[in-house]
Amino acid sequence: MASSNKISIITAPADVGSVFPGKSRAPAALQSVGLVNKLTTLGYEVSIHDALPDGPAGWSESEIGLNGARNEAAAVAVCHAVKDTITSALANSSPEEQIPFQLILGGECLIYCDLTYPNEPGSTGNIAGMALTHLTLRSGALESMKTFCKPDGSGSVDSSNVVLFGLNSSSPANKRDHLGYLFNENYRVFTSSAVALDATRRAKEALSWLEERVDYILVHLDVDVIDPGLFPLGNVPNWTGVDFPEIMTALKIFLASKKALGLTIAEVNPYHDPGLKMTGRLVDEVVAGLKARLD
């Protein structure tokens, strides 16, 4: 399990695979509202590792390539940089130590999101919307993304090791064939409607399902799962009906697990948050969840 008092912060300020600019500013914004100081005050030993030391990989206008993807080379380079940085951070731990908790401050959702694939009819070509396709390596995945796989060449994610929590089944972005794929492949899904009704119950059910099947848990917080009419910090409007406190309740349940090894935070767009009040609230809730781990 993760060390009780060490946290490695990995910053990945990028929005090269996205629809709108702004998320590359998220790691700096999250730190500017006191994240590191609040963690060290709790008693955590914090180390910071920048996956993009030469500066943020910002949004730029681009054409869709012949393979159906925009900014493919830049997006793949960011993925390699994040992978290498995490590998290096883990390697710095001495063999007798437990693994430090990994707190990954992303820009965009290059970790997982929806099931769009390159050259899909109607696709924008933005790779950030293809992340679950590339984690599963389902049909249509980019060849350049197949390097991010298990040793046997299969996708790092399948229906045995992931829960999709807060999926907005009514969103036009989640097409019928995407939802059909999840059903056909037996993925465990909790819809945003179910989470809105009882976030505590659903989070406990999701965690129990995972703890029975995996050795370690990586929690991925995509703030787009929070309804923008209630808390408009996310990059793209996603009308889920789920309020900020409900998602934070679920987050704390997940972080309390002894199997939780890390947390990624994605889709924060500081352009939506003048004065960073929402960003500050988010950091306070994350710190509260991590405080419980020390207890």
Automatic annotation (TrEMBL):
The family this protein is said to belong to: Belongs to the arginase family.
Gene Ontology terms: cellular component: cytoplasm
Entry keyword set: Hydrolase, Manganese, Metal-binding
Pfam families attached to this UniProt entry: Arginase
GO molecular function, one term: arginase activity
Keyword flag Metal-binding: yes
Full protein name: Arginase/deacetylase
